[in-house]
Amino acid sequence: MKFKTPLHQASRLGWDIARESAASILTYELYPLGLISKSLPTLPTLSLKDSPRKRPILFIHGVFHNRSTFAWLKQRLQARGFRNFREMDLMPSLRPIPYLAEQVARDVRLFLKKNALSEIDIIAHSMGGVVARYFVQLLGGDGPVRNLITLGTPHQGTEWSKYSVLPHLRELKPQSRTLELLNQCSPPKKTRSVAISGELDIVIRPKECMWWDGVRNIHLSRVGHAGLLFSNRVLEIILSHLNDEKLK
Questions:
Q1: Is 42 a member of any domain?
Q2: Which helix (H) or strand (E) holds 12?
Q3: Helix, coil or strand: residue 106
Q4: Which domain range does residue 75 map to?
Q5: Model confidence over 120-176: pLDDT tens digits?
Q6: pLDDT over 90 percentage in the chain
Q7: Which of 22, 34, 120, 219 lies most in the core, judged by the most C-beta atoms within 10 Å?
């Protein structure tokens, strides 16, 4: 058994923090990419294989971001054979969560009807996960949404939101009316849900607020709020849920 020295642990923590900082910077540097088209572009890959799976994936971003949040993840999913993507640009800093959830509900229903589909998957980051939960649990999304995967979502709120000057962000404070409503609901019965969080996440505090009661929760070490969007481990977890039709 190898024992890790304090120096080794400090060195690894320093590297993890530097990597997380780089992920945060990159997320915001990618922001203009989300403004240039209605669909986030992907780079060509040499290993494209047609996927028999036709269920689309909807990406829902968080506060102060746009569709560019998922640039790396969308590229990696395409390289694994996924083709049918849909993104929404919301304004979570300016609109209340119920309003945003209604936007998602309308968009999903119109999209499924137009394309003669019955199901969609959702991958949501940060506050986007709360919006997606509201749709699934309160607006009829339980069923039409086959998989709901949240990344770094404050399912129980975050203490930081108490200090926001934007009133709609204060919906994310622990025990807010919106979060209490969601957490009093039963977990989704038809939608398979997983909440992925990171130990280095400083956006969601206390860390217990990352937990979504009643669904599968996966807490990863050495990754934080932005790093979840670029993590190979997160990608593998997402793929295991999207590809496993028997998963409960």
A1: no
A2: helix 6-29
A3: helix
A4: 7-35+55-243
A5: 999 999 999 999 999 999 999 999 999 999 999 999 999 988 888 777 788 899 989
A6: 56
A7: 120
Nearest to 215 by CA among 144, 148, 157, 152: 148
Residue 11 falls inside a structural domain:
yes
What the block records as the tokens of 123 is 């991958």
Q: Does 221 map to a domain?
A: yes
Q: With beta carbons less than 8 A apart as the criterion, state whether 119 and 146 touch.
A: yes
The CA distance from 125 to 152, in Å, is 6
- Whole-angstrom Cα distance, residue 114 to residue 108? 10
Residue 134 maps to which CATH number? Answer: 3.40.50.1820
| pLDDT tens, residue by residue, 17-61 | 665 666 556 564 554 555 565 555 555 554 555 555 668 999 999
Give Rg (Cα) of the chain.
18
CA distance 123 to 55: 13
pTM: 0.85
